[in-house]
Write a structure and sequence with these properties.
The protein is of the alpha/beta class and about 280 residues long. It is about 25% helix and about 20% strand. It has a six-stranded mixed beta sheet, with helices on one face. The structure holds fe (ii) ion (2 copies). The site of one fe (ii) ion (FE2) has 8 residues, from loops. The site of one fe (ii) ion has 8 residues, from loops.
Length: about 280
Amino acid sequence: MTFRIAQISDTHLSGDKPFFVDNFERVGEALRADRPDLVLNSGDISLDGAASESDLAAARALHDGLGLPLRFLPGNHDLGDSQDSPARGEGTIDGERRARYLAHFGADWWSLDVPGWRLLGVNAQLLASDLPEAAEQEAAVAEAAATMGERRLALFLHKPLFDRSADETAITGRFVNPAPRRALLDALAAVAPALVACGHVHQYRETRADDGCRHVWATSTAFVIPDARQPRYGVKEVGYVEHRLAPDGAHESRFVRVPGVPTLSIADFPAAYGPVER
Ligand SMILES: [Fe+2]
Ligand SMILES: [Fe+2]
């Protein structure tokens, strides 16, 4: 049985500022018709949950309305960004913000076994934080990698691990930075993921690394960021991603455009945020 994941991302939902709720609901109608085995939101679930708990509650209620199996990973807008991120307009991850996230969405790192595969979700913002749970997460990643047997690994997190190469040295808010990237890869030890899937950049992109790993960036269901504020790496359109994981280890990922869902630009919603680099 092939396991089908609908990866949605960067839904940026809020009850007080419901600018992107229509897009979410239209994507949700498509998901209900498609009935994937799992809907996985890879972060920035809420518009500004780092500052406003009501955004977390509203986002959770909208997801529960889908009536589909759900998993979540936090984004910088849900619990603050990493300490090592240069621009932290949404604030910095701390124990209180993380606890609020956990109360609404459950564990911020987790693993799930499906035929032939282990899915491993990690909290990208926690990786580079000074919270004691960062070490707990690394230990959990190491344990998941050490006990997966013949399965293949699909790794999910909010931020891309890198642009083109794990050796990049740039410190940015867009990718996992070099030190936490190294810590994560070290925790995986000899296990090379077959698939790494993320969100955060609001663009769809699929690349193959030198080791054969497929890196898939899910775009946002909500909005894109204009070229004047963010380079173009891939496709700047809204939608979601379908991953198909076969028991024999074969896998494919594809960008799904949902008819009738407009690609909004954050430039047209000045009340959502000020200019923020993503
Ligand atoms: Fe986002
Ligand atoms: Fe993000």
